[in-house]
Amino acid sequence: MDDREGAAERAKSPTGADGAMRGGPAAPRSRARRTRPVRLTVDLDPVLHRRLKQWTGNAAVELDVVDVSLAEVFRTLVHRLTVDRSLAAAVLRDLRER
User: Fold this and answer.
1) For each of the chain's 98 residues, which pLDDT tens digit applies?
2) Buried/exposed code over 84-93 (b: 16+ C-beta within 10 A; e: otherwise)
């Protein structure tokens, strides 16, 4: 199933949105929320990685801390991407240009 697949497409599938066969009883859904973080892996071009490491080094100096981790930068960027409409629009423009 593709990440971009919406509820309407899942509902059209032979198993339905919940994975149960149509006409059969639906499997009970867990109401528990995920509490453990989700791990992501990103492959970067070596030049882009070097630039990012230079940026985090400069950020550490600016923030007067020993280190700024790549993970924290990615978490911050993802958060900003989901709440900042102008940033989201800029990222969409960049993605369209690829």
Assistant:
1) 444 445 554 444 444 444 445 555 666 677 788 789 999 999 999 999 999 999 999 999 999 999 999 999 999 999 999 999 999 999 999 999 99
2) eeeeeeeeee
DSSP label of 69 = -
User: Whole-angstrom Cα distance, residue 87 to residue 53?
Assistant: 22
If residue 92 lies in a helix (H) or strand (E), which one and from where to where? helix 85-97
Backbone angles phi, psi at 81, to 5 degrees: -60, -35
Q: Rounded distance, CA 54 to CA 56, Å?
A: 6
The neighbour count for residue 34, using CB atoms within 10 Å, is: 7
Q: Under 8 Å CB-to-CB from 21, ≥6 apart: which residues?
A: 14, 15
CA distance 51 to 19: 44
